[in-house]
Amino acid sequence: MSEPARKARVGGFALFTLFLTAAFVALGVWQLQRRTAKHELIAALTERLAAAPVALPPSALWTALNPARDEFRRVSFTATYAALPDAMVYSSGSAVRKDASGPGTWAFLPARLSTSETVVIDAGFVENTMQDRGVEDRAVKKLVTGQPTALTGYLRFPEAPGWLTPAENRDKRLWFVRDHLGIASALGWGTVAPFYVDLEHPAPANGIPRPGPLDVNLKDDHLQYAVTWFTLAGAVLIAFAVWARGRRQG
């Protein structure tokens, strides 16, 4: 191989090495940035979950609420469960409820405020109910007393379905994503608040549905991923150095 061709080959391989190294370093930095953002989110959620409940914001302020600032805020209010069909939302396990680690469904039903607005309530977890509509119907029926009930829970916002999210089963009133707005539209609940409330208490006497406190348990593997990307960057540089040294000696 001629000297110009050899130099061109080494130069091309060097550029490719620099490209890979830069890409791996960028991915490592991105993971560190995600780690910082995740820690800020965990701190914010921990603070919100530990705070004393506040009054539910009036409906005039609902459009100003957003997930970044208001998700998981604790609220207390009084509402009356409406005598309307409830919905089951399937869960394979919860990241924020340690007592709901297995499969089951969340019981979603509408409740009316004294000011006539409707707020959707996630009344709690019902284990192993995906195939039995009657279990949740019987559990929810005892909540619908026609009397106002003092409720405490957490503001939550609707989820968007993913590419692999199954379609809802309207016959069973079974959903696979916490889209309370879509559920309300499908089941004729009327206009509802842009958020729903994840119920903390009260719980029924037999604990079904089972509400409860939330706990931050977000996965944080970003430092491990960052170290992996930086290690790959270093390995690429070392491999190039060894290869280039061999070429010079040859």
Automatic annotation (TrEMBL):
The keyword Electron transport does not apply. Keywords: Cell membrane, Membrane, Transmembrane, Transmembrane helix. The chain crosses the membrane at residues 12-30, 180-197, 223-244. InterPro entries: Surf1/Shy1, Surf1/Surf4. It holds the Pfam family SURF1. It is found in: Cell membrane; Membrane. It is a multi-pass membrane protein. It comes from the Bacteria. Belongs to the SURF1 family. This is SURF1-like protein. It comes from Bradyrhizobium diversitatis.
